[in-house]
């Protein structure tokens, strides 16, 4: 029997219960299929940081590299550990070290879920560049603490980085509704964004079957709420993708429904699957975190591993659950209730 | 009688008819008040560029400096003149040359206007930094056209620039509902955005009467659609403000309703007033551009000049117009019909 080894990183706060829920569902679907999932849990988190002084051991990346995939909950506990430590010590280094350059975030309204828009015609796949761009970390400050202080931050875009994410987007558009929207701000950022637009035009010539359009990030944010039905695949830089996917999550009813995959398309290292939501320290003790985003992320993991049937079965069970009204209203049902409802609906 | 000299820059496309409509309303309200408006029209536009090779004459900035205020329509005709020429040759230089560092954009649903959200509880004032940050223009490219090509773009934030826009935001919050939301992305951009957060905290100590909260741009974009009623004044960098105000425009029913003021709060140079929408070359010949955003921007100009009563009268007339259903539905009514309806309702 095929066995996949999965690194489980529940992380902090609500990351733990939602990862547990996702893992239960994954195990159940594996049991009913012809593959096995072997999980190894790593307690890397802000708690771990407070005990050891690091978010993960020095050989953390090497340890993770052996796995077929990583399932992450959420990290961060800003009141106790600065984001600069928690995120830059775990989440962001993993995305970069494993060249998980394609961050895929599916946004659609599940049956039974009511979003904030009047329209419920919403099915957008966001592809976010995940390793460079505005998150490069380059920059610094001078004259600190004085009236003359200046801070700079440099975005770095490489042809390799832009080309591969756009290509990934074109391929996705091909197997969806054939439409690709590329997002920049080339009317104000003349170096990096004009560069991105040029590469988009070059690649468009290679994909005559894909209808491609370029939008500025401001216009795209407006379009997401005014005419979301006109969008299919949306590809954007690290920062712009971050913004659009939180907006997408909001439109699909909230972060409790927003799944994501950090994909290394070359399969030279493991990919990582995580709900878009954070660790939500403020509600962590209430037991009401919606595990649907984490379970959906788990389904994306199975699809990536090649177990598409099992992935599809999970999606059917999720949708049957929300259709029955369970987990459909943010904050109403317990994490366990929702997880149990999904498990019961796994055919 | 007090006379204000106004520079009119209708610009391109729909910029022309909406500026004309706004000017008619401004003249009418002036006539009924105790001040006069003297307009001088400058044909600076893409048309002008095609004839002269520049978007404005070399002494354009010096010419504008003599005026009490500038009323702009919209510039740009991307199919014929690249944005890098049209915007960087007129709009952006004016904002910078006149230290119009506060870009104010009021977002609320006018009576009779139906937005895309189910909720209609929406009244947010966005304050966007308008002279530095992500629009600094610093950057470049190496190994152009090769597989090794790299493009960089540097955001530059100064203490002076950040402090003054935040201070402006605090002052606005004071005279509104007392709440300020500061927007950054300090969990991923460690230099500039952490800097901004620090200055926010410093200033917060000076404004104990203002309730201040910091949000990441992704979370703020989500909040704008999920819980807009929790927001009062939102202050953000050039780029983040740009994104949030297009989103705000969408939520208030479309760009036809989104007004803006580029304010030089020190009054060392003229301020500029313009609708948020662009020149819309695709619909420019149809005669259906909504002039409400331009008229509202004109009202903001009067308020800035100290004519608050006249400004308020225009706002009442705008709202009576949309309440009557005129100009309330994007693309339905003619520019002239809407302008005439506002004029008729000027008490
Ligand atoms: C926590 C933060 C750094 C992260 C990001 O912006 O990448 C998160 O917002 C996300 O979208 O995964
Ligand atoms: C045209 C463009 C450069 C401009 C901007 O981003 O500043 C516009 O989008 C705006 O919001 O005024």
UniProtKB/TrEMBL annotation, chains A, B:
Pfam families linked: Iso_dh
Classification via Gene3D superfamilies: Isopropylmalate Dehydrogenase
Source taxon at top rank: Bacteria
One GO cellular component term noted in the UniProt record for this chain: cytoplasm
InterPro entries, A to Z: ICDH/IPMDH, IsoCit/isopropylmalate_DH_CS, IsoPropMal-DH-like_dom, TTC_DH
SUPFAM superfamilies listed in its UniProt record: Isocitrate/Isopropylmalate dehydrogenase-like
Keywords in alphabetical order: Lyase, Manganese, Metal-binding, NAD, Oxidoreductase
Signal peptide extent: none
Pathway the protein acts in: Carbohydrate acid metabolism; tartrate degradation; 2-hydroxy-3-oxosuccinate from L-tartrate: step 1/1; Carbohydrate acid metabolism; tartrate degradation; 2-hydroxy-3-oxosuccinate from meso-tartrate: step 1/1; Carbohydrate acid metabolism; tartrate degradation; D-glycerate from L-tartrate: step 1/1
Location(s) in or outside the cell: Cytoplasm
Family: Belongs to the isocitrate and isopropylmalate dehydrogenases family.
Example GO molecular function: tartrate dehydrogenase activity
Main location: cytoplasm
Biological function: Has multiple catalytic activities. Apart from catalyzing the oxidation of (+)-tartrate to oxaloglycolate, also converts meso-tartrate to D-glycerate and catalyzes the oxidative decarboxylation of D-malate to pyruvate.
Organism: Rhizobium azibense
PANTHER family: D-MALATE DEHYDROGENASE [DECARBOXYLATING]
Catalytic activity of the protein: (2R,3R)-tartrate + H(+) = (R)-glycerate + CO2; (2R,3R)-tartrate + NAD(+) = 2-hydroxy-3-oxosuccinate + NADH + H(+); tartrate + NAD(+) = 2-hydroxy-3-oxosuccinate + NADH + H(+); (R)-malate + NAD(+) = pyruvate + CO2 + NADH
Domain Isopropylmalate dehydrogenase-like span(s) in chain numbering: 5-342
Cofactor: K(+); Mg(2+); Mn(2+)
EC number of this enzyme: 1.1.1.83, 1.1.1.93, 4.1.1.73
Protein's UniProt name: D-malate dehydrogenase [decarboxylating]
């Amino acid at each position: 029997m095929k066995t996949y080894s999965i690194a489980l990183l529940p992380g902090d706060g609500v990351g733990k219960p939602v990862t547990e829920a996702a893992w239960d569902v994954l195990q159940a679907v594996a049991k009913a299929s012809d593959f096995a999932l072997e999980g190894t849990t790593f307690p890397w988190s802000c708690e771990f940081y407070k005990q050891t002084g690091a978010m993960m051991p020095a050989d953390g990346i090497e340890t993770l590299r052996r796995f077929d995939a990583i399932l992450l909950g959420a990290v961060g506990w800003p009141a106790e550990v600065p984001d600069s430590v928690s995120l830059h010590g775990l989440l962001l280094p993993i995305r970069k070290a494993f060249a998980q350059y394609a961050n895929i975030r599916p946004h659609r309204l599940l049956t039974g879920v009511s979003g904030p828009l009047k329209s419920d015609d919403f099915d957008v796949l966001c592809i976010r560049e995940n390793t460079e761009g505005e998150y490069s970390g380059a920059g610094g400050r001078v004259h600190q603490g004085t009236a003359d202080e200046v801070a700079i931050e440099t975005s770095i875009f490489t042809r390799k980085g832009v080309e591969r994410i756009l290509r990934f987007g074109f391929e996705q558009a091909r197997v969806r509704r054939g439409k690709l929207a590329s997002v920049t701000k080339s009317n104000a950022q003349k170096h990096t964004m004009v560069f991105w637009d040029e590469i988009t035009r070059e690649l468009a010539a290679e994909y005559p079957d894909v209808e491609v359009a370029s939008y500025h990030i401001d216009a795209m944010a407006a379009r997401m709420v005014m005419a979301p039905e006109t969008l299919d695949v949306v590809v954007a830089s690290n920062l712009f993708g971050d913004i659009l996917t939180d907006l997408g999550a909001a439109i699909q009813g909230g972060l409790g429904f927003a799944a994501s995959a950090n994909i290394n398309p070359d399969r030279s290292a493991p990919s990582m699957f995580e709900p878009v939501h954070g660790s939500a320290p403020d509600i962590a003790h209430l037991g009401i975190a919606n595990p649907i985003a984490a379970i959906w992320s788990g389904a994306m993991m199975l699809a990536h591993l090649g177990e598409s049937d099992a992935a599809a079965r999970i999606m059917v069970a999720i949708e049957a659950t929300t259709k029955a009204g369970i987990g459909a209203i943010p904050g109403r049902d317990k994490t366990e209730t929702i997880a149990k409802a999904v498990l019961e609906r796994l055919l």
